[in-house]
What we know:
Elements: E1 2-3, E2 9-10, E3 15-16, E4 18-25, H1 35-51, E5 55-62, E6 66-73, H2 79-97
Antiparallel strand pairs: 1-2, 2-3, 4-6, 5-6
Amino acid sequence: MKRNNSKYTHGRTCVYNINYHIIWGTKYRNKWMTAAIENEVKQVLYDIASENDFSIDHIEVDFDDHIHLFVSAPSKLSVTVIVKCLKGTSSFRLFRLHPELKQF
């Protein structure tokens, strides 16, 4: 897949522009996000996106208890697969980096 500066992505047999606005909250809406952890969360999410062939165009962490993502993905990936990859892998990696987060 070739993504250029235009708003369309050109694949071998298709041209697409699929974007999702994904929002999820932290468990029990606990406010555990600090500036350092916020930067690590963003980096982990960008890494997951590059590993799974989709891109995150914008990330916003609001009120320390939920995350907004604007994701551009190929047509072969469903939104459920994207959310599963983002939430599951990011929590696994963050708990490995910061074991103290498990107590929240």
